[in-house]
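Title: Comparing notes on inverse folding

I've been comparing how different people in this forum approach sequence design from structure. To keep things fair, I'm posting one structure and asking everyone to reply with a full sequence. Here's the target:
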């Protein structure tokens, strides 16, 4: 999947999730997803730190989202 396709997928998912939700619900979902992303980033970085010789070519290095 190209970077453009990935961006379009992310935008489409956000639009689909936000449909028929209140602003408060969207805020809560956004914060929850940001926390999930940050936690996944922390886990990934810690794994790399503990296993520096392990090949990470299949895992893109995506920084966590900070709101």
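Reply #1:
Here's my take.
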């Amino acid at each position: 999947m190209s970077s453009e396709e990935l961006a379009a997928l992310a935008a489409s998912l956000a639009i689909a999730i936000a449909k028929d939700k209140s602003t408060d619900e969207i805020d809560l979902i956004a914060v929850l997803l940001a926390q999930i992303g940050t936690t996944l980033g922390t886990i990934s970085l810690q794994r790399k730190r503990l296993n520096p010789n392990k090949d990470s070519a299949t895992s893109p290095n995506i920084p966590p989202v900070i709101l």
